[in-house]
Design goal:
Blueprint lengths: L23 E5 L3 H11 L4 E7 L2 E10 L5 E6 L17 E5 L5 H10 L5 E4 L3 E7 L5 E7 L8 H15 L6 H10 L20
Length: about 200
């Protein structure tokens, strides 16, 4: 039985604040050259602003456009790139950026050409490529299995959740997503993506 406090749905909750979207995410980086090489030169995010870190002018604050006007910012300094990230409560597990389904296989080829290791999974409701940035932070590059308008995504996912629960499934699967798209009155348009394992149970 679902606890009402953690119920899933698309309606706005009865809360004192309602956010309007993600403005930016900021991470700690190493140095400017390695950071720009990964995020701009490999992933294709334009570097749109560079200025001092206003809390610590000895560092530089880089702003990258992730593709839809949402911004990733990175604090960099005179630091070597690291390997691996510490986990734990409050830590960032990974960052996920969308990629065009028509370029999905090109993304894998680009990662290979850059000498980056990666894994590919069918996550039930989307496909994902997992790699790491120059500091070992896990970066997910996901693409939709079906055409879903951005302004209907939450509605579709909430319906997929409802169908998953009714089905008694452990997680939302392709059939739940397809049925959810139909349930909200959208045309089901499937993207041609390569087959991949589910990756259930960890990366």
């Amino acid at each position: 039985m679902t606890d009402e406090r953690t119920a899933v749905g698309h309606d706005l909750p009865d809360s004192p604040v309602h956010t309007t979207g993600t403005d930016h995410v900021t991470i700690w980086g190493s140095n400017e050259a390695d950071t720009v090489a990964f995020y701009r030169d490999l992933l294709g995010m334009p570097l749109v602003l560079r200025q001092p870190n206003l809390d610590d002018p000895s560092q530089t604050h880089l702003f990258f456009d992730t593709g839809d006007g949402r911004i990733l910012t990175v604090f960099v300094g005179d630091r070597d790139s690291a390997r691996g990230q510490r986990g734990g409560v409050g830590a960032v597990h990974h960052l996920c950026f969308g990629v065009d389904p028509g370029e999905y296989e090109d993304v894998m080829a680009a990662l290979e050409d850059a000498g980056k290791r990666y894994n590919v999974f069918d996550r039930g409701i989307f496909h994902s490529i997992y790699t790491q940035d120059n500091n070992g932070l896990v970066i997910e590059l996901s693409t939709d299995k079906y055409e879903i308008p951005d302004d209907r995504r939450g509605e579709v996912l909430a319906n997929a959740q409802r169908l998953r629960e009714a089905d008694g499934a452990d997680y939302a699967r392709d059939e739940h997503l397809r049925a959810a798209i139909e349930a909200v009155g959208l045309e089901v348009i499937e993207h041609d993506l390569p087959e991949a394992g589910s990756g259930v149970g960890g990366l």
